[in-house]
Structure of Protein unc-79 homolog:
Amino acid sequence: CCDCGLVKEEYSDEELGLCIIIIGTFIHREPCLAASLLPEILNIVTTVSLNITYPWQSESSIYLPGSAVSVAHQFLRCVLHQMAPNGIFLQMFQTNIKGTTSTRLFRSVSQALVDFNELNSIAPLQILIE
């Protein structure tokens, strides 16, 4: 950066998708180690999942196969389904998340779970109420 002197990092869509897959594998294999990092991981992945590449994607729920957005949605589905018995939804609702970050998180989770048969978008509320 010309202003602050920090190194700018730019990643392609495929590289972001591969990074999300690596993080998903880490969470799947070592959930105990990943538990403390999970809020930050979810925050970053929700940022990627809400990042639209093309203007037509803002009005549609269709994503390009293999794009970082579709990989991020699948990551959210898998991680939330894997962690649901461990109380991930209760933790999500109890965590003190400020302002737009919580809106982004819940919007991204609901978009990811809309067409997921194993865990629909109402399931987090059901689990929370139970």
In short: The mean pLDDT is 80. The two ends are 50 Å apart (CA to CA). The helical segments are 13-29, 31-34, 38-49, 68-83, 88-94, 99-113, 123-129. The CA atoms of residues 46 and 105 lie 6 Å apart.
